[in-house]
Fold:
Amino acid sequence: MNINTNALVAMTEANQNFSKVVRVVDEEGVAVILKNNKPRYVVVDFAEYDAIQEMMELRRKMVDAAADALLEENMEAFLELAK
Structure:
C-alpha cells in the first residue's frame, strides 16, 4: 500500500493540533496517523467513509451469495460428510 507522505501526521501532533489533521484530510483526501512511527489510524472525510461502508456491504452480499451457491451445489456431499 502506497501512502502519500503529505498525508502523514504523528500521533503527538494529531493530539496537539487536530485542526492540522482536518486540513490534511481536506487537502489530501486522507490523513494517516502514525503511532510509534508506524501507520496506525486513517482519517477520511465522512462522504468517503460512507462510500467505504457501502462497498463493504456489497462485498458481504457477494460473499454470502457465493457461499450460498457453494452450499447449494454441494449439498449432497455436505450431507454425506455430516453423517
Q: What stands out?
A: The two ends are 46 Å apart (CA to CA). Residues 1-44 form a domain with the YefM-like fold fold (CATH 3.40.1620). Helices lie at 11-16, 18-28, 46-73, 75-82.
